[in-house]
Amino acid sequence: MTGLATYVPDETITGAEIAAQSGIPEDVVVEKMGVREKRVCPPDDDHVTDMCVTAGERALADADLDASALDLVLFHGSEYKDHVVWSAAADVCERLGAENAYAHESYTLCAGAPIAMRHTAAQLRIGDVDRALLVTASREEDLVDYENEDSSFMFNFGSGGAAVVLEADGTTAPEDSDSPPVAERARATVRASAAETDGSFAHDVVMPAGGSVEPPSEETVREGRHTLDVPDPDGMKERLADVSAPAFCAVADDALAASGYDRADLDFVALTHMKRSFHDYLTDELGVGEGHHYLDEYGHVQSVDQALAVEAGLDEGTLSAGDVVLFLAAGTGYTWSATVLEWTG
Fold first, then answer.
1. Residue ranges of domains in the chain, CATH in brackets
2. Which of 185, 188, 52, 191 is nearest to 118 (CA)?
3. Per residue in 155-185, is it b (16+ CB within 10 Å) or e — as a string?
4. What is the C-alpha to C-alpha distance for residues 345 and 343, in angstroms, rounded to an integer?
5. Looking at residue 153, what is its pLDDT?
6. What are the residues facing 135 on neighbouring strands?
7. 3-state secondary structure 142-185
8. Biggest alpha carbon distance in the chain?
9. What are the Cα distances from residue 135, in Å, to 35, 85, 210, 227?
10. What is the band of 151 on the pLDDT scale with cuts at 50, 70, 90?
């Protein structure tokens, strides 16, 4: 990893405002759900590709790399983007000037960052590509209905974007470039990954209308069927309680072991935003002490969370050179994912 950057919109909504709209007590929203505030996008600005382009430009600058040197642009963000049945990756590629790259998309919802890194690192290791830009963004806050108590676990959804530059170890500088060698610009080395899926949760979180099962119509719009819903919230919560913590720990342990480490070696975990008690449980289980950041100033920004947590750790001094870092995530469907990095600077 030679470059890392994030972007978040200026506009915010506070936990108090969410409480007022939803009727849920403010202390529940702020303390239990863990949302002091989060970023939201204006209706006509900060579309998914806009946030990807801004974060991508910043990450390339951080990597001291020109977009023309890229071989790959990968979008692993939200399926809710500027247009449906459309390649955000191709648009980002064009707008960044990555004229020598090919573009494609990867969807694992909120588990996307570790998996996108896993797939791209494999391509780099076998020499399929030398330089890649991974971009992500989400504004799924648009899809949340605060009056629907059944979907309250999504009230933490916020907006933002992130980008990471990955380059193959030993890659020489592009022609006509003054960029130093990869080793001199590296921020981290990507090691092993792990993931697992429990597809029995595939229909637990849906936007009822808009797909082929229920195409959009005047009726679906009138009935408000284009927001996210949880058909059986109590059933989902009951079933998820038995499997989520073991799954998080299993993918963390598998990724660490495949990288030559165990929990005792772990210094920092960049974890998907979740309710505060579960976050604290997982960080205690992993034994990271202060080596984590709770994103209660951003909420849950899909696969942007890991980059936001890393930037916060760098700002706070809880992440530094020599640390073993774990990107740990989960996405509805339900997939849990982890990737290990060795932080170099």
1. 3-185 (3.40.47.10), 190-343 (3.40.47.10)
2. 191
3. bbbbbbbbbbbbbbeebeebeeeebeebeeb
4. 6
5. 87
6. 75, 163
7. HHCCCCCHHHHHHCCECCEEEEEEEECCCCCCCCCCCCCCHHHH
8. 59
9. 25, 18, 25, 25
10. confident
